[in-house]
């Protein structure tokens, strides 16, 4: 079973904000005393915290799904919903936080460093907070927004002053056990060490940490063996200590060839921008296992060649502890010099400048996308997207409030500039978003004038009638009405129809019968 994990993917879901409340205060003799709906509570954030007491990401490997609680809804009588507590996730020092695409978000190298990786949703306003002089009793409230949901990557890079590198079974774990209180697993087979081990070493007044990096072999920088998985743990170190096995039984190996292979792999491994290449850092060489007579002879033989290359060479034995004191103080000297250099570099860093938001930054953009039935106008921006989430589209008053907010933000002007017309398809937000058929809110027809500057197409063809035209139109209507009345009189006199007044006036024929309407004289019954 794994006991050390240095790379995980977390699936996070922050809490949603609570909805605002729609409520009207009712008292005796005051059935409508005004709105009193409270605001919804904010959802819980998810925060990463660098903790020196944590050394592995194993806990997140076993349970990568984490979510915080939602905020509470608002209530009447101006009672706000409860705000959810944030969730803190402790990670080891040296953890690099990346988004789902692999872009670096933070490098957590300082104890107590905090970063909000999943912000919670914002609580919605109640109708009491939405009341104004123009809207005295809002019949709607804002909904809570959704919390952030997505994946982040955590990659652990060990923070150590000295990294022990070398072939498998060269004695790195034995060395760290001999000079510190660390107790790594030690065995007589290759790749005993499956994860980096940290040890704290005291050398006089200097205290430094040593990392036992799993064994490297040829091709490690290309992914062969375990090297590629653990070479990143060398990135943080100040100095490198090459552990060379002088008692190897492999006839194809010797200390010089082992060193050349390790140097080739370290040179091929790319370090992040801004860091020193691995081979540009201080390097020392330790010829191990000199407690074996043949190994001591080989160490004496190659020591001169290594010193000719510019290395400080120490002959050591992790069994008899011979030469460890001199090596310990030499490493402390290198570490102390590196810390002084790092402090000077830290002081020379440029000051961080925070610039305010530009005055002409509208906070949104309008993108024109092609569609099967014409252009689609997509609005991308923090405010419009949040406002859409807060709107209850089953409430007409809430939809009207959204329209007013979007108009004040200047979205309609930008849509018109982008070529949108009444009825165009508008989408707010990425992906599917919320789709609208744009109906512009116009205060005058000036928004739709596209004539060149200094001209107005409304003045080119005047449709205003003169007094003579209106008089002629009036007399024409009067003549038409007189002609219609005369035609009706002629039809009635001809007997084609009657008004029926004779029936109600008691007019009857001589024999007492009622004359038949619409019948002319001489026609049969």
Jot down its keywords:
single chain, 525 residues, alpha/beta, Spo0b-associated Gtp-binding Protein, Chain: A, Rossmann fold, GMP Synthetase, Chain A, domain 3, 3 domains, 6-stranded mixed sheet, disordered C terminus, GTP binding, nucleotide-binding, magnesium ion binding
What does this entry look like structurally?
The protein has 525 residues and is of the alpha/beta class. It has three domains: 5-154, Spo0b-associated Gtp-binding Protein, Chain: A (Distorted Sandwich); 160-346, 3-Layer(aba) Sandwich (Rossmann fold); 362-446, GTP-binding protein OBG, C-terminal domain (GMP Synthetase, Chain A, domain 3). Helices cover 26% and strands 19% of the residues. It contains twelve helices and 18 strands. It has helices at residues 58-62, 127-130, 172-179, 227-230, 255-268, 293-308, 324-347, 382-389, 396-409, 411-417, 467-493, 501-504, and strands at 7-13, 46-50, 65-67, 87-91, 95-99, 104-108, 114-118, 149-156, 162-165, 197-203, 206-212, 239-245, 283-288, 312-315, 364-369, 376-381, 425-428, 434-437. The strands form four sheets. The protein has a six-stranded mixed sheet, with helices on both faces. It has a five-stranded mixed sheet with strand order 3-1-8-5-6. The termini are far apart. 31% of the residues are buried.
């Amino acid at each position: 079973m794994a006991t050390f994990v240095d790379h995980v993917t977390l699936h996070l879901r922050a809490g949603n904000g609570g909805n605002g409340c729609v409520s009207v205060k009712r008292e005796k003799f005051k059935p409508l005393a005004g709105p009193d709906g409270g605001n919804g509570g904010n959802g819980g954030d998810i925060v990463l915290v660098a903790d020196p007491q944590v050394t592995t990401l194993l806990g997140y490997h076993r349970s990568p799904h984490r979510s915080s609680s939602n905020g509470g809804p608002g209530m009447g009588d101006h009672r706000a919903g409860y705000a959810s507590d944030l969730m803190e996730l402790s990670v080891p020092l040296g953890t690099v936080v990346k988004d789902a695409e692999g872009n670096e978000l933070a490098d957590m190298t300082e104890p107590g460093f905090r970063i909000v990786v999943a912000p919670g949703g914002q609580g919605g306003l109640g109708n009491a907070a939405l009341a104004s002089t123009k809207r005295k009793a809002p019949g709607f409230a804002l909904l809570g927004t959704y919390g952030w949901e997505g994946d982040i990557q955590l990659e652990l890079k060990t923070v150590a002053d000295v990294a022990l590198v070398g072939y498998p079974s060269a004695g790195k774990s034995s060395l760290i056990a001999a000079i510190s209180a660390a107790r790594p697993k030690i065995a007589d087979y290759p790749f005993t060490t499956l994860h980096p081990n940290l040890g704290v070493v005291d050398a006089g007044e200097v205290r430094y940490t040593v990392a036992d990096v799993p064994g490297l072999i040829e091709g490690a920088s290309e992914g062969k063996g375990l090297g590629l998985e653990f070479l990143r743990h060398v990135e943080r170190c100040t100095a490198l200590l090459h552990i060379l096995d002088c008692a190897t039984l492999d006839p194809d190996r010797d200390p010089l060839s082992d060193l050349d292979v390790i140097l080739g792999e370290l040179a091929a491994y790319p370090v992040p921008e801004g860091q020193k290449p691995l081979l540009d850092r201080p390097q020392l060489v330790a010829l191990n296992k000199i407690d074996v007579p043949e190994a001591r002879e080989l160490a004496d033989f190659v020591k001169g060649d290594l010193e000719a290359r510019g290395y400080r060479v120490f002959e050591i034995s992790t069994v008899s502890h011979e030469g460890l004191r001199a090596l310990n103080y030499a490493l402390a000297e290198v570490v102390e010099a590196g810390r002084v250099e790092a402090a000077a570099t830290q002081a020379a860093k440029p000051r961080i400048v925070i610039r305010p938001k530009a005055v002409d930054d509208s906070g949104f953009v309008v993108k024109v996308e092609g569609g099967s039935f014409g252009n689609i106008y997509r609005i991308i921006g923090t405010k419009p997207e949040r406002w859409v989430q807060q709107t209850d589209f089953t409430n007409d008053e809430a939809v009207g409030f959204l329209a007013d907010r979007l108009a004040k933000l200047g979205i309609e002007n930008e849509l018109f500039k982008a070529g949108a017309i009444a009825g165009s398809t508008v989408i707010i937000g990425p992906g599917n978003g919320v789709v609208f058929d744009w109906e512009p809110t116009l205060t005058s027809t000036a928004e739709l004038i596209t004539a060149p500057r200094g001209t107005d197409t409304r003045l080119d063809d005047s449709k205003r009638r003169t007094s003579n035209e209106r008089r002629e139109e009036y007399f024409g209507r009067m003549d038409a009405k007189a002609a219609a009345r005369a035609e009706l009189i002629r039809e009635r006199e001809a007997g084609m129809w009657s008004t029926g007044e004779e029936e109600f006036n008691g007019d009857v024929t001589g024999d007492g019968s009622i004359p038949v309407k619409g019948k002319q004289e001489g026609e049969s019954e």
